[in-house]
Write a structure and sequence with these properties.
The protein is an all-alpha fold. The chain has eight helices and no strands.
Length: about 200
């Protein structure tokens, strides 16, 4: 098991592995934007639509981070925004689906697919933290993005559609989301600092 873990860590920045991750993230992002198309069509004014597809936007940004790594580049502000958003919305989706299920919402195969793919988003944000060049000011950029999203999503009700059972509790979901944003900012910054000290 230890051998596999060392092999896996050593593969993260190899070109074949990066290409695999780029393709997976890109395809997931395309599907994610398609998933949000109805909600985006119903969101007015149109300028707010950029704040609707949270997860595919996050995975698209992470795809760019992976492409930068593939060509030997490091873009710290992009790493910060992508990693924080990927971790946040990955955890958020799994938590919200399970919360809806706890209230009686039925789970279908799509829900399991979403939980698996979003858990992967959170995991990859953590796995690649050892390679980030993030500093505190870059976390500030990420904070602006995720907190603006939160402040728009719930007061303006442009948050991702919730299950019928969970929708009456949308403001509680909003407070959970805000807390998760702060936690995600701390996690990514703490991991980056940890790996800088180790290396």
């Amino acid at each position: 098991m230890e051998y596999f873990w060392h092999w896996f860590k050593g593969s993260l920045r190899k070109s074949w592995f990066l290409w695999m991750m780029i393709i997976i993230n890109a395809l997931g992002s395309i599907y994610g934007f398609y998933w949000y198309k109805d909600q985006m069509d119903q969101t007015y004014p149109a300028i707010l639509r950029i704040f609707v597809p949270d997860s595919p936007t996050a995975s698209s940004l992470f795809t760019l981070v992976l492409i930068a790594m593939l060509i030997g580049r490091s873009i710290p502000w992009l790493e910060a925004v992508a990693a924080v958003a990927n971790f946040k919305y990955g955890v958020w989706c799994v938590g919200v689906i399970l919360a809806g299920a706890a209230l009686g919402s039925p789970l279908y195969w799509e829900h399991y697919m979403l939980m698996l793919s979003h858990a992967g988003m959170a995991v990859e944000a953590v796995l690649y933290a050892r390679f980030y060049s993030i500093k505190l000011r870059h976390i500030g950029y990420a904070a602006v993005w995720v907190l603006i999203n939160d402040l728009l999503d719930y007061p303006l009700k442009i948050y991702p559609w919730l299950s019928t059972e969970l929708d009456p509790y949308y403001m509680r979901v909003g407070w959970f989301t805000l807390a998760l944003s702060l936690f995600s900012l701390w996690v990514i910054y703490a991991l980056t600092r940890h790996y800088k000290k180790v290396n």
